[in-house]
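Lecture notes, continued. The same structure-token format from the folding unit now serves as the input rather than the output. Read the line below as a description of shape only.
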């Protein structure tokens, strides 16, 4: 099935004046005849629009799955609704990656929590001891 809108450089929401203008300026006689037959009659256009939406959705699904037509089909009519593969990461994979990262940070923290607490306690104790010693030193030195 041809994507008449794509081949005529129109949007599916084009009005009848835009369609008739695009059909008139079309150089391909077979495409012009198909467009006049399908898009020129309101009932045919309504049926075509429903089918166009369904086939476009299938093309988007195929792209999300990474499916494309072979190289020998690239310029063919069968490739009108095919989109390049969508290599974007899925929402599920993104969430799994984020949870895995959070778990690795937690595990990393757990591994160093004991030694870090000892260093923190030692530093705090040394700081308190120095402050207490400094205070006592100042108190004795003023008498």
């Amino acid at each position: 099935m041809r994507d008449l809108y794509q081949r005529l450089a129109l949007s599916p929401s084009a009005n009848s004046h835009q369609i008739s203008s695009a059909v008139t300026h079309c150089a391909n006689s077979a495409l012009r005849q198909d467009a006049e037959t399908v898009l020129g009659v309101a009932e045919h256009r309504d049926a075509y629009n429903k089918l166009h939406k369904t086939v476009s959705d299938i093309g988007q699904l195929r792209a999300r799955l990474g499916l494309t037509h072979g190289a020998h089909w690239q310029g063919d009519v069968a490739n009108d609704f095919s989109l390049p593969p969508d290599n974007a990461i899925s929402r599920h994979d993104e969430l799994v990656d984020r949870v895995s990262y959070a778990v690795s940070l937690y595990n990393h923290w757990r591994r160093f929590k004991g030694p870090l607490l000892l260093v923190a306690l030692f530093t705090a104790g040394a700081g308190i001891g120095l402050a207490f010693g400094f205070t006592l030193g100042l108190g004795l030195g003023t008498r």
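Point for the exam: The chain has two domains: 4-79, 100-143.
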